[in-house]
Amino acid sequence: MRYPIDSNESIGLRNAQIGAIHAIASYDTFNKKCAAIVVMPTGSGKTGVLMMAPYVTQRHKVLIVTPSIMVRGQIYEDFSHLHTLRKIHVFHEDVVPPRTYELKNKFSEELQEDVSSADVVVATPQVALSLSENEIKASFDYIIVDEAHHVPAQTWQSILNNMKDVNTILFTATPFRMDRKEIRGENIYTYPLSLAYRDGIFGEVTYIPIEEAPEKDDLIAIEAERVLINDREQGFDHYLMVRTDTKDSAKALEKLYSSVTQLRLKRIDSSTTYNTVARAIASLKLKEIDGLICVDMLGEGFDFPNLKIAAVHAPHKSLASTLQFIGRFARTNADNIGKAKFIAMNDNDLVIENYKMYASDAVWQEIIIDMSERKIHEEESVKNNLKEYSRITDVEKSSDDTVSLHNIRPNCHAKVYHISNFDIEGAFPKSCGVQDNVYRSYADNTVIGLAAMKTGPVWLEGDQALDVQNFLYIVHYQPDTSLLFIYSQNKTEAYYEEIAEAFSELYEKIPRNEMHRVLGNMKDYQFFNTGMQNRYSEDGESYRIYAGSNTASSIDETTGKMRSAGHAFCKANKDNVPVTIGYSSGSKIWSSLYLKIPEYVAWCNECGSKIADEGIIVKTQTNYDLLPIPKRLQNYPSSVFFTFFSDKTYLSPPSIFLGGDLTDYVLTDVVVKIDNVKEKQIEFTASIDSIVEHLSCDINGKYKSELNQIYIKDGRNRVSLVEHLNDNPLQFKTTNDALIVGNEICTGNPDAIAFSLNNIDAVDWEAYNTDIRNECGDPTETGRSIHAALLDMFDGDTSFHYLIYDHGTGEIADFLTVSEEEFSIDVTLYHVKAMGAQNFNSGVNDIYEVTQQAVKSTIWLKSKSTLLQKLVERRKGGRCILHKGDFEQLKRLLRTNKYFSAKMVIVQPSISKGIAMPAKYQEVLASTKFYVDHSGRVKGLRIWGNK
User: Fold this and answer.
1) 714 lies in the same domain as 678
2) pLDDT digits 0-9 by tens, 460-514
3) Full-prediction pTM beyond 0.70?
4) Helix H segments across 137-208?
5) Domain that holds residue 287
6) Which residues does the UniProt record annotate as the domain Helicase ATP-binding (predicted)?
7) Considering its fold, how many domains does the chain have in total?
C-alpha cells in the first residue's frame, strides 16, 4: 500500500484522506475498545479511506455496515475490485483484492460458508444484526460503519453491543443528530468543510430564490427547467433532482412537471423496488433522462457529481439532512460541471440552526460552512467537556447499567442561591437517593447525581414501594458571582435547601429585582406568561396569571399601581437569536430548552452573570415595565400588622393532623397572629382548636418553630407547618401598604395610610344593653354580649333576606347577610371583636385581629360559587346557622346569573368616633380599608364603633 499525494500532475490521495488514514493508524496503536469516529465531508473520499483502514490496521476479517441497499452495492463493487484505490495509485493494478461478500439476506446456515470464507462482508443494518446474533460474529476483528450518524438507532446499537469486543470505526459527514442522541466514540479526525471548499472537494453552491406566491410548485418547476437549459447551453453536463417529502406530493409533481415543462423525469420513493431505482439511476447516467423526482431518496452514499440542480419543493427540517442533501450536489469529481444550484420558495418558513436558509438574502456558501463547522465543534466540545466528569466510585458497571452523561438532557430550570464556601466534595442528602452514582467536574465546579428510588403509587396507603422513579440532580457553582445553581426534579423547598446545605456553609435566595436581570441585554420581547401579585386580593385572588401570545398588553398603569411582578416567561432576541427565559419568586429561572450538560452549565453561567450585574437595567419596552419589582428585604418594618397564607394554600388547603390524627380542619382554619416584629425576625403564633404553635420567620424567609405541633397532609405527604411555610411563605402586610413574601418586599401606596373618621358608624351600645367587653358569652352584670346585641339589631332590619351566624374556627365571618335585588345579590360580612383595652382608641390589639379577619375573608367573595362552596363546607361541620331564610333557597339564589357584590363591616366597640385616635391606630384602619376597597368584589368597608 502506498500514499501518493494528489496533484495537478497525478491522481492520488487528497488532504482529507491522508489526514484520516494516518489518524486511524495512530489511534489503532492505543488498542482502545472505544469506537473511533472519523468526520469527513461528503465527496471528500470517505470510501477510499474506509477501504484503506483494514489494511493499515492489519485486520483479517471486516464487517461493513451501510445504511442502504444502494450504498451496500456500491461498496461491495468497489471493494471487490479495489477500483478507487487502484485508480488513485494506492495499490498496483496486479494487487489481489480481498474476498468480498455482499450479504443480502439475513444470516442462516446456508450462508455460513460464504460468510466464513470472506475477508470483507458488506451488509445493511437489519442483515448485519442477524449476523451479530450468531456465533460467527467471533470471527470478525473489525467493524466499519458508514454514515455513522445512524448508530444511536436501536438496530445499529444492537449490532455494536452484540460485537462489543470488536474494534469499530465510524465514518460520517455529520456527527450530530436531530434528536441529539450521542454517537458514542472518540473523535479521532475531523476534516472541516472550509478546508474541503479550499481544496476544491466541496464545490460552490448558489441559492436561487422564488418570491413567495400561491403557485409555489409551478414557479419552482418553471425556474428549474430554465436553469437546467441555461447550464447546458453553457456546456455544463448538469442534471436535476426534484425534492419533496411525501409520496402523494411526488406523484402530483410528476404530473405538474410533465404539464408545465418538457423535462424528462422519473419518480422514485421508498416504495420503489431496488431494481427500478437502479434502472432510473442507470438512465440518468446514460443521459436518457434529465433528472429524478425523489422523496428522501439518493441521499447518503449516492455519487453522481453531475447532479447539480435541486428543485426544493419541501425543504429538509434538520441540519444533518440538509448538509447531506447539499453535499450530493457540491461534489467536484467530474468534468464539465459548474456550481450547484438550489431553487426554492423564499417563504422564510424554515429555520435551521437559527439560520433562515430559504431567505432571499441567504449566502449559502458561508451559511453551510459555518453551520457545519459550528455544529461539529459543539459536538466535539461537549465530548471533551464530559471527559472531565469523574465517578465518585471505582465500582465497575456494565455498559447497559451506566448512563451516558452525553445523553442527559435537563430542561433549563434552576434554583439559584448566593452562597459562601462551595464544597464540591459535598454529598447529596440521603433523601435524594443518589448514593454513589455521582459525577464531579472540578473544571466546571459541577456535581451530577443520578437516583433510582422506589416509591408507592398515589393510590396506595402505607410504606410499600411498587414504583421506581429516576431522578436527576445537578449542582453547579459559578465562582465569579458566588452563585449556586441547583437542578432538581423534586422542586420542594426542603429538597433545595438540603442540597444547598450539603454543598455550602451559608446560602440565601435571590430577590426578584436581581432575578429580573436575566431579562436584560435583549430586545423584541414577547411575554407568554406573566404573574402578578396583588396587594389587595382583587376578587379574592392574591395572584393573577396571564397566558397568551402577548400578555404584557394586558398590563396598564392601574395594574402597576395595584400589583407587583410575580413571575415572567418571555421570548426575546439575543444577538439576533431567539431565546426564551423566565424567572419567578423563590430564586428560580427557567427556559423552554433541553440542553446537554455542558450547555446547561453555560446557560447557568450566562444567567448568573446577569443576575450579579448591578449595571443591568431591564427595559423590555412593553407594558411589563409598569409592574414594580419586589426588592430584597433588609429589615422588617415595624408597620407590619397582619399576615395571611399564600394563594396556593387558599387554592388547595391541605388537611391538618392534631395529636397524630387526621382531622376535618384545613390549613386555612388555622388562626395566625403576629406577636412581635423585630428588625430581623417576625414572631407569630398559629392556633387551631386547643393547639398553639410559636413560630418565627427571618429576613431570608426561613421559618422556624419552637416545637412542631401542627402537621398537615399535603397530597400524600405528611409535613410540618414549618416545612409547608418554607415552600409556601406567608404574606405580611404593613400599614403603609407594603407586601412582604419570603425575603422580598414590594413597597406600597402612600395613600393607604390616609384615614377619615367618616368611615366609622357610631353605635349606641348602651341602648342595646351591651357589655362591649363580652363578644359572645353569656350575659354579665354589665349586659348582653355583642353578638346578642347584633342579633337584636338584625331582627329589626328588613333590608336583607338571609342572616347567617358563623362564629368559630375557620369562620367566613361572625355574621353574613344576603339580600336579593332585581338584578343583583348583595352580601355583607360582619367581623366582631370585644373591647380589650382600658380606654377607647388606646390598644391596637383590639383592631389587629379583627382587621386581619376582614382582609382574609375577601378570598370567600371571589365569586358566588366560591362563597356557596364555603357555606356548604361550613354547614357540614355544623356551622353557618341560618337565623333568617332557607338554605336551599339561598343555594338556588347563589347559582343564578345575578350580579354579585359585597360589603365588609368591622364591629369593634373600642373604636370611638368622638375621641382622638393615635396615628398607629389610624394607619391600621386606613390600610385595612384601602386593601378591602381595592379587592374587587367588596365595594366598601364600614366600622361599627362607639360614640
Assistant:
1) yes
2) 766 666 777 889 999 999 999 999 999 998 888 888 999 999 999 899 999 999 9
3) no
4) 154-162, 193-198
5) 198-379
6) 27-193
7) 4
